[in-house]
């Protein structure tokens, strides 16, 4: 503080510098958060971009079998409930599957679809491609199944394919 200067005017001079420092810190935090979400985005089980499913893929989908389905539920420490559908997928065709999307549908007592969710079961974050003639386990995780669900196994079908 300079001679004859009040503490109020000294604080007013320091305010722009403190404000600017706060803006810089906030910008760095938001920038870091943005970069982290772009680089380490959630492991992609949800399908952001639809896989192709034209006539050739639809014909090949008949050679893919989803068997031995099981369901389970769990609750984490935050009291969030998750439903898991898992089973075996078999590639009974003659081509390698590089990416595959399945759609799971839950129905109510009137047989109306109350939940439809599409997820990748083969893709960049879901293991290697599935070669012709091989089988391996798959799983689909759902965050919320409506209470109106009829308690029967959901329907699950192939709705997207990338073949090699």
What keywords describe this structure?
about 160 residues; alpha+beta; Immunoglobulin-like; three-stranded antiparallel beta sheet; elongated
- Strand adjacency order, main sheet: 1-2-5
Q: How many distinct beta strands?
A: 6
The CA-CA distance between the termini, in Å, is 74 Å
Query: How does the overall form come out from the CA principal axes?
Result: elongated
Detail the topology: elements first, then pairings:
Elements: H1 7-39, H2 55-61, E1 64-75, E2 81-91, E3 97-107, E4 113-122, E5 135-142, E6 155-163
Antiparallel strand pairs: 1-2, 2-5, 3-4, 3-6
Q: Could you describe the 3D structure shown?
A:
The strands form two sheets. Strands 1-2-5 form a three-stranded antiparallel β-sheet, with no helix packed on it. It has a three-stranded antiparallel β-sheet with strand order 4-3-6. The longest helix has 33 residues, at 7-39. Mean pLDDT is 85; it is low at 42-47. It has 164 residues and is α+β, with helices and mostly antiparallel strands. The radius of gyration is 26 Å and the shape is elongated. It has two helices and six strands, in the order H-H-E-E-E-E-E-E. The termini are far apart. 15% of the residues are buried. The chain folds into two domains: 1-41; 55-163, Immunoglobulin-like (Sandwich).
